[in-house]
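pasting for ref
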Amino acid sequence: MSKTDLQNALDHLTYGIYVVTVGLEGGATALTASWVSQVSFEPPLVMVALGRERFSSRILRQGKKFVVNVLEEGQERLAGAFASDEGEDRLSGVATVEPQTTGAPVLAEALAYLDCAVTETVDVGDHTLFIGRVVGGGVLREGKPLSTAVSRLRYRRM
């Protein structure tokens, strides 16, 4: 199997597309993520996988708290705004609601959110898994979540 064939096959796996906001000392930033999953009911845990060498991975290691913002179908532009790997001040001009339990901001346009505190990091291959205990969350409005099944957005190696 060629690398192209393998990538085409992997592109058929379906993921949600999320904006993860990270609370930092004196501020916050955001990134787009699709490798996000619930990993436990009790305690409630979610996982975000980020390329180990990427800016977003370094920021999450620093911040140790994050919010998974669930986007709605049609919000590809919002997801794309946080997809690059540059700069810390990425939330300038983006509407947020009052930071929740961890202090990481919630996007006002999100369908729902999960407020998480990092409990563990695990290096796997070229990525780091950030395991977060869900300490809060809620549904802001109803809608269909954005996913790779309905969007052309794909997570690609930089």
